[in-house]
Amino acid sequence: xxxxxxxxxxxxxxxxxxxxxxxxxxxxxxxxxxxxxxxxxxxxxxxxxxxxxxxxxxxxxxxxxxxxxxxxxxxxxxxxxxxxxxxxxxxxxxxxxxxxxxxxxxxxxxxxxxxxxxxxxxxxxxxxxxxxxxxxxxxxxxxxxxxxxxxxxxxxxxxxxxxxxxxxxxxxxxxxxxxxxxxxxxxxxxxxxxxxxxxxxxxxxxxxxxxxxxxxxxxxxxxxxxxxxxxxxxxxxxxxxxxxxxxxxxxxxxxxxxxxxxxxxxxxxxxxxxxxxxxxxxxxxxxxxxxxxxxxxxxxxxxxxxxxxxxxxxxxxxxxxxxxxxxxxxxxxxxxxxxxxxxxxxxxxxxxxxxxxxxxxxxxxxxxxxxxxxxxxxxxxxxxxxxxxxxxxxxxxxxxxxxxxxxxxxxxxxxxxxxxxxxxxxxxxxxxxxxxxxxxxxxxxxxxxxxxxxxxxxxxxxxxxxxxxxxxxxxxxxxxxxxxxxxxxxxxxxxxxxxxxxxxxxxxxxxxxxxxxxxxxxxxxxxxxxxxxxxxxxxxxxxxxxxxxxxxxxxxx
RNA sequence: AGGGGUAUAGCCAAGCGGUAAGGCAAUGGACUCUGACUCCAUCAUCCGCAGGUUCAAAUCCUGCUACCCCUGCCA
Length: 557
Fold this sequence. Notes:
Elements (H helix, E strand, L loop, with lengths): L9 H11 L9 E4 L9 H16 L3 E6 L9 H13 L8 E3 L4 H13 L3 E4 L3 H7 L17 H13 L8 E4 L14 E5 L13 E3 L1 H12 L3 E5 L6 H9 L10 E5 L11 H9 L14 H7 L3 H11 L10 H15 L2 E2 L1 E2 L2 E6 L7 E7 L9 E7 L1 E5 L19 E4 L4 E9 L5 E9 L16 E2 L2 E2 L4 E8 L23 E8 L11 E4 L3 E5 L10 E7 L9
Parallel strand pairs: 1-2, 2-3, 8-9, 10-23, 12-18, 16-19, 21-25
Antiparallel strand pairs: 4-5, 5-6, 6-7, 11-22, 12-15, 13-14, 15-20, 16-17, 17-18, 21-22, 23-24, 24-25
Helix pairs in contact: 2-11, 4-6, 7-8, 11-12
The chain binds one RNA strand through helix 5, strand 5, strand 6, helix 7 and helix 12.
């Protein structure tokens, strides 16, 4: 009967404040997620999109998906498709509210004309280099462009020519007329339209001019009736221009949207940032945008992460204005937590060591029954074969064990999960002295489920019957980068972990072979694994390691 | 004196003048046919620093300090 308190943060506080002050009609709340289709979504976008979506849900408001496609030189339909797929997978619903900034291009151009007529915008002939010189710098004011005083008529004429494609690419630009001496660089007559003779991927007609983000975004938000326009911190000092645009356009005097900025997500041992992800993909350092080592949504999906785990993670990290770096252990916690009850628990051997049970009949096979998940009896049971020759993990045997080692060592008895107690009697080595086989004896009285309680054993290990084992390929992962050192955005490529992927052939009990792409399992004592959709074939299943199991076992000193 | 931001535990993060939530990590212990899970316990005399106001300050005021962002015809 715990009252589930709504999680508050500075954004919900701001919205509550707006509601208290009756800022928006009927206390409406309308958010949006405005990705530019120029790359794949990553975990940072999950935070942003889920944040916007959840807020709309909590306030019984609306949520729009809007592609901010104002720069055709970088954008592509491949990305809009992947973004829609990723968002839907994350559980975000935009109903029929799917929009494209490009569908507002006509209106935006009309609004530019309105600004020109009001004497608030002008066509500039300065080259981009000249503009940079005229802009001044952080401590010195800029100077006004010679074109700033052009007549409204001339500006109108020139803008029309820009729009019709009569002027060469890059030759002119439409600028807002604000203040070249503003301490805020974004207010020093920012460019609002540039000439680009590029075919736009979605626009319904040919355009030769394209609006800049700073000009387009407030208009997009206002047209859609957005109330709270959430974006990241670096746009904080763009806010004055966002407000300038809306306050100077007649259509948007009523209930204009409000921009609120929050800190983007950073994760330890993880490279987030479209530009860097694209570099990894383009330089083929990784296996595409959906490489399981990447924090892209598609990578996490292929790795075996669930939408629920990502939702829970994003909920848990909260949202604030503090630049922060979340420990990757937090993400890993939530996938373990989610899969704990969902994933069947089966046995595989990653690094095999043969064990012969010398007192077990040569040709006998018995099928022992095990729960698919003992924490969820409803999942039912399955059977697995047991016979004279089995594989156990190499790590589960030590010839000279440290204190508190509960696994196999000469003379020690352990339980084989779901089967019998075995005692290690003899260690077989090759000519180099490597342990290649163990000879053990089992105690028939100790069969699982028999109620045997004469003696206890400290360790239980997993195993696989050699004659029934199937080979599978397992991809074990380590972090792509190690951020303990002085790593930064520019040198991360030199800090790529060369051992981030280890491919091993493992042995699985027969039940594992029923697995289908994306299906997730706990391989007992090894971790959570998911069937790789890209490389699995009917002949050989490939499993991605999602995350290992936690372990408090540490060899004593 | 360029402008805009942010500082609460190892990492996130609540808190909004009444005496420091929660999660992750970590540590100890219980349990265990997964050294997992679960459970129990521990983990900020203190909120970047220094002053001030107040019966009372992480919360208000003043002054510092540190870090982040801003000089694309990118978003």
